[in-house]
Amino acid sequence: MSLKIHNNNLSFSEMESAIDTVLESLIKTEGVKGVLVADAHGLCIGARGIANPNCAGFVTAIATHAKALSDDPNSQAPTTKIEADNS
Predict the structure, then answer these.
(1) Distances in Å between the alpha carbon of 45 and those of 9, 13, 73?
(2) What pLDDT digit, counting tens, does each position of 1-12 carry?
(3) 74 exposed, middle or buried (CB, 10 Å; 0-12, 13-18, 19+)?
(4) CA–CA gap between residue 8 and residue 54 (Å, rounded)
(5) What pLDDT sits at residue 4?
(6) CA dist., res. 54 & res. 42, Å (int)
(7) More exposed terminus of the chain, fewer Cβ within 10 Å: N or C?
(8) Residue 24's pLDDT is what?
(9) pTM (two decimals)
(10) Which bin fits 24, alpha (ψ -120 to 50), beta or left (φ > 0)?
(11) Half-sphere exposure of 52 (CA within 13 A, CB side)
(12) DSSP state of 16
């Protein structure tokens, strides 16, 4: 999922509130254990649950490579589900 806030008239606190609202909504989704939002350079914007903010760069790289699998240059990065042996 791609989150874009393009309203330059929003204050920092309004943008932060919008991101927090999305994070809280996503983490409440059944089966979701962690949510991480990062910018295109891998800077962590926010995280909830078991998502590790220190992994934002890696997650951004995975999403970038996953998007490259699409033939449509206008497609958004796909939703990525990461599974491990213990979760």
Answers:
(1) 19, 13, 25
(2) 555 555 567 787
(3) exposed
(4) 28
(5) 57
(6) 10
(7) C
(8) 95
(9) 0.72
(10) alpha
(11) 6
(12) H
- Which residues are bridge partners to 79 per DSSP? none
Q: Are 77 and 67 in contact (CB under 8 A)?
A: yes
Residue written as tokens 């958004």? 76
Q: Per the structure block, which two tokens stand in for 35?
A: 């949510």
Token pair 């699409």 is at which residue? 70
Sequence-distant (6+) residues with CB within 8 A of 67 are 75, 76, 77, 78
Three-state SS sequence of 32-87? CCEEEEECCCCCEEEEEECCCHHHHHHHHHHHHHHHHCCCCCCCCCCCCCCCCCCC
- Copy the structure tokens of residue 76: 């958004």
66's tokens: 């996953």
Q: Which two tokens stand for residue 24?
A: 């809280």
User: Which residue reads 């497609």 in tokens?
Assistant: 75
